[in-house]
Task: structure prediction
Amino acid sequence: MSRIGKKPIPVASGVKVEKKGQAVKVSGVLGSLQMDCHALIKVRVDESAGMVVVENEHPADRQSRQLHGTMRALIANMITGVSKGFEKKMEIYGTGYSVKEQGQKLVFQVGFCHPVELMMPKGVKVSIDVGATRGNDIPAKFTLSGIDKCVLGQFAADVRRIRPPEPYKGKGIRYADERVRRKVGKAFTSGAT
Result:
């Protein structure tokens, strides 16, 4: 049995959970999300207790054991997303690097000979706190936010993949809470012996 899968999911106030067949729809103040559950997993909505229970009817089957905790986590993320939302804070280090928003695109200047444009997925919003870096010490900062944790996390990973942080000077795009392991550069010695 999955320890996470066994936990009932509390439904926040103002959130409505509906189940039709294998489809689970969650709607709240920030929007609505829908997901099709796997056929091996049974979802039960207990409105009187304000809980959603995810049940595994085949505990001996390996795939259903794997899906039990996964489905529970996905439904819990949907409930959190429509009530509070998710956000990812990101930073850009490097002299002359910058980010700006143009319509539904994010445009990055990160050391290439051309600007890099990335289309924002539907439901993801960007707020830019600091648009351009100042030296190597003050980074450009922006925040990605949305209600779907999967879409938001994938878009943040796509943004980071444009210019991952390099280990010598730390230049590149990174998550705000990410620690970059630094390497020592080459040490030159004088030719006199």
